[in-house]
Amino acid sequence: MNVKDFDFELPEELIAQDPLEDRSASRLLVLDKKTGEYHHDVFRHIIDYLNPGDCLVINNTKVIPARLLGVRKETGAAVEVLLLKRREKDIWEVLTRPGKKTRPGTVLSFGDGLLEATVLEVVEDGNRLLQFHYQGIFEEILDQLGQMPLPPYITHELKDKNRYQTVYAKYEGSAAAPTAGLHFTEDLLQEIQDKGVKIAQVTLHVGLGTFRPVKADVVEEHHMHSEFYRVEPDQAAIINEARAAGGRIVAVGTTSCRTLESASDENGVLHAGSDNTEIFIYPGYHFKMVDALITNFHLPQSTLIMLVSALAGREHVLAAYEEAVRQRYRFFSFGDAMLVM
């Protein structure tokens, strides 16, 4: 399967730069995964497509202010660090810019020395392992010095950093937001529950690998990044009971989808626990747990559009994307949404 099979033309002006004032006011394209038929709606009407007994699964990860701007202590030259994954208490896997200048042994300084770090080694994909040094509590210093790690296609400054968090964000650890969840408000979630729809939570800490371009020409040759996930026993029970009773499992975002598919067995039973997943979902994949998906509009040739195509079919998805472009939908993190059912 060729990566170019998942390409489409996207005018740059359709890339959403700012979140809407009302989270649930985004547009919604509803796609029938079996027939390819689609129609247009507004996200706050998502409740109309959910039935009593269904289970909506959300990812409760929380984005950390993972972008640090500092200097190389020896030369004073500027450096940017993006925290990707905590390996041990004060050792993080990070992305550095410029990368070639941050060799092992280099000392970095942030906030006039409030936080310092030593480069320990170069690891996979050119990432670095940093050992941080500080006085006090790391999370408090990070909250003081760090910035929200917005994707590079967003060039506008984010005035309210909470807008890059879901309203149910709980466990810190993500380098990017699970953006399909940004459309929900607390009131909308309550209305969904009041209708008799179960809401279950899982955790997957989103890494930057989600957004990295596929460099291989052949889809099957792409290697997925590893991300940490956790499914609590009580939440697994909610999901399994809903499925056993005939309810649909509706994943909010590709991160929830990847968690559910990683933690489920071939019999469609979700198992509690935590692990790292490198699951790569593309057309031909057999879904074990997920029946429907709420998601944003993704980058051309990305692993995310491949995942959506695995659920609804490549031709159906690309046709829906062409319609979204024609109708001037807003794309990517702060953009509009799609419901695949």
Explain what this protein looks like in three dimensions.
The protein is 18% helix and 27% strand. The chain has 341 residues and is α/β, with parallel strands linked by helices. The protein folds into two domains: 242 residues, QueA-like (3-Layer(aba) Sandwich), CATH 3.40.1780; 79 residues, Thrombin, subunit H, CATH 2.40.10. The strands form three sheets. A nine-stranded mixed β-sheet has the order 2-1-17-16-14-3-12-13-15. A six-stranded antiparallel β-barrel has the order 5-6-7-10-9-8. A two-stranded parallel sheet has the order 4-11. A hairpin with a 4-residue loop joins strand 8 and strand 9. Helix 5 crosses helix 6. The model has no long low-confidence stretch (mean pLDDT 95).
* Proportion in helices: 10-25%
| CATH architectural grouping of the largest domain | 3-Layer(aba) Sandwich
Annotated CATH topology of the largest domain: QueA-like
Low-confidence stretches: none
| Relevant CATH superfamily of the largest domain | QueA-like
Number of domain modules: 2
Question: Helix and strand layout, with pairings?
Answer:
Elements: E1 27-31, E2 38-42, E3 55-59, E4 61-63, E5 67-72, E6 78-86, E7 91-97, E8 107-110, E9 115-122, E10 128-134, H1 138-145, E11 171-174, H2 186-194, E12 198-204, E13 227-231, H3 233-244, E14 249-252, H4 253-263, E15 273-277, E16 292-296, H5 303-312, H6 314-326, E17 337-340
Parallel strand pairs: 1-17, 3-12, 3-14, 4-11, 14-16
Antiparallel strand pairs: 1-2, 5-6, 5-8, 6-7, 7-10, 8-9, 9-10, 12-13, 13-15, 16-17
Helix pairs in contact: 5-6
